[in-house]
Amino acid sequence: MNQVQGVENDIGELKGIAKQLRRNIISLIHQAGSGHPGGSLSGADLLTGLFFGGVLKYDPRNPKDPNRDRFVISKGHASALYYCILSMAGYFPAEDLADYRKINSKLNLSGHPHPKTPGVEIATGSLGQGLSVAHGMALGLPASRVYVLLGDGELQEGQVWEGAMSAAKFKTRNLVA
To answer: What is the pTM of this model?
Structure first.
């Protein structure tokens, strides 16, 4: 699992990064003996573009930079995707992924994102909550963009629709879902 240097790669480079990300996800889930490959693989292209296409403002050397953009993965069961992209982006070494889904993992690499993991903004797992939380972040951080990745299974949750209607009502321009 290689760490990717730089951002704003061309399409060919982004395709290569996405391909490596998919390999990393499959390897991670296989070595852990559990995980959610479908949910993780489905977001590989999106997160590659976000993290390595020059879209998301972040600095892995300063993960709490107040001027950073925020990313929320609402479908927390896709943690393999999240941890692999964070590792490739430089938040922590790929070797640390060996602790994925292990109790007392050094970086809290549990089956759902944990806010003590470098690069993770919030704990997620209960489907339907990510959009509302991201909307609150966007309202409180008008100078930053807030991106949220939702899963298809949570789109039937009432809270998702409440979050979407609230974002429209408040004309939240810095929220991307």
So the answer is: 0.92
